[in-house]
Amino acid sequence: MKSDTYHHGNLKNELIEKGLEYIDRYGVESLSMRKLADSVGVSSAAPYAHFKNKEAFLDSVQNYVTDKFYVALKDAVDNCNDKIKVILELGIRYVKFFYENPLYYHFLFTRKNIKLNEYQPFVFFESIVTDVMNNHVGKNLDKETLRLKTIALWAQVHGLAQLISIEGVVDTDNLEKEIEKILISTVA
Length: 188
Prior knowledge:
- By secondary structure, the protein is mostly helical.
- The chain contains 8 helices and no strands.
- It has helices spanning about 10-25, 35-40, 55-80, 85-100, 100-110, 120-135, 145-165, 175-185.
- Helix 1 packs across helix 5 (about 100-110) and helix 4 packs across helix 8.
- The radius of gyration is 19 Å and the shape is elongated.
């Protein structure tokens, strides 16, 4: 690629998206800032305007994906008027987000550096489950039971996201309805 190309647009996000593709194809070990620059068609120095080094790049990718994931979950809650059904909508959005962005799923959950209890999407998910269980279902569960229910719900949608986005084992012609049927069938 020509290394003196002038880049228009959002180079940082383009580097992140191309980096995700590169990592998925060749692995994180083979990624270099020079290869990343080449993939976008910019000079080998251009990525350093946004990332100090490869590790800073990987941290930025994780933050970028986490932010997008959090916004998707928050949108599901903000757009749901039924306080009982909000957990179902949250689960559907979780699975659909990673179905639509399988590289995000693979990147996030293969790095092995996410501490779930500190992970913004999980903390948000937990707050919604707690609110619904205590204020709308009328169960007033103790803290430990709420923690276990939250982990079980997260594990369910997390596993389903992997099955759909990575393994491709669920019929995706009517994805949202299929996800809803699966999620409802496990609590019925």
